[in-house]
Amino acid sequence: MAKDAELRMAAIAAVMAVTQQGDDPGQVARQAGAAWSQDHRRMLSGQSSLMHARARRSPWR
Question: Residue 42 in contact with residue 50, Cβ under 8 Å?
């Protein structure tokens, strides 16, 4: 009986491990996206371009 429970838990863990690999589809929309997309969203909202915003950052020290 204990062996059956152990095998069942191992099977459940294996299925969970396989299904949780890769990107979470619910988090895809939270990512910033390509530079082209970021730049166009910034320009449409009246902000400076992405190239200008990246150039303003402080240099490495």
Answer: yes
Rounded Cα distance, 20 and 8, in Å = 18
CA 51-31-58 angle, 5° bins: 35
Q: How many CB atoms lie within 10 A of CB 42?
A: 16
- In eight-state DSSP terms, residue 26 is G
Q: Which pTM was predicted?
A: 0.47
Task: Give pLDDT tens digits for 7-59.
Answer: 999 999 998 888 877 666 777 777 888 999 999 999 999 998 888 888 887 67
One-letter identity of residue 37? S
Cα dihedral across residues 56, 48, 41, 36: positive or negative: negative
